């Protein structure tokens, strides 16, 4: 009887190890099958909004902040201190002696994430250009001007006969 008892004692850890190993291997198989699904949903950092989305976001920010008069905007750039991953700055152009309030406008992809009064590091050193507002929701950006036909160079010289 003592031998059978010892035999049971040694087979239990072996059986336990085999059971554990099969779970581990089974887990591997399951994780590789699901990993392509996980890869498809892997985090992708937000990308820069399209100009159309930025224009729409600026219009929304102008309305929210009740800005009037001509608006200037800066270029879009990446940021790590706002509600969106990308930002641009806008300001209302007032009389030369008034200091225009500047606002930071934030985006993730094409999604407007909000605007706030800018802090010095947001918009202080930006280059501004006029912002041309679209005239309504149906307004489409101006079509690119048709490229002028290439000018043909006259290489042959007319020689007097």
Topology:
Layout: H1 2-40, H2 51-64, E1 71-73, E2 77-78, E3 86-92, E4 102-108, E5 111-117, H3 120-123, E6 129-131
Antiparallel strand pairs: 1-3, 1-6, 2-3, 3-4, 4-5
Helix tally? 3
List how many beta strands DSSP finds: 6
Q: Biggest sheet, open or closed, and with what strands and sense? A: 6 strands, antiparallel
How much is the average pLDDT? 74
Poorly predicted regions are 27-34, 136-145
C-alpha-based Rg, rounded? 33 Å
Number of domains as seen in the coordinates: 2
The level of helicity is 25-40%
How would you classify the helix and strand content by structural class? Answer: alpha+beta
Q: Beta-sheet strand percentage?
A: 15-25%
Q: How far apart are the termini? A: 129 Å
Written as H for each helix and E for each strand, in order along the chain, the element string is HHEEEEEHE
Shape: globular
């Amino acid at each position: 009887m003592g031998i059978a008892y010892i035999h049971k004692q040694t087979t239990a850890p072996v059986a336990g190890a085999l059971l554990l190993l099969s779970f581990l291997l089974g887990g591997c198989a399951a994780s590789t099958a699901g990993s392509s699904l996980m890869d498809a949903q892997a985090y992708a950092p937000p990308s820069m909004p399209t100009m159309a989305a930025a224009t729409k976001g600026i219009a929304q920010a102008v309305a929210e902040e009740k800005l009037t008069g001509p608006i200037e905007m800066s270029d879009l750039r990446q940021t790590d201190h706002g509600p969106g991953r990308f930002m641009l700055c806008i300001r209302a152009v007032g009389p030369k002696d008034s200091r225009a309030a500047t606002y930071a406008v934030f985006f993730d992809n094409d999604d407007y994430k909000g605007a706030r009064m800018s802090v010095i590091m947001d918009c202080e050193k930006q280059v501004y250009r006029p912002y041309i507002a679209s005239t309504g929701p149906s307004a489409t950006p101006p079509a690119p001007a048709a490229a002028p036909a290439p000018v043909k160079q006259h290489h042959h010289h007319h020689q007097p006969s």
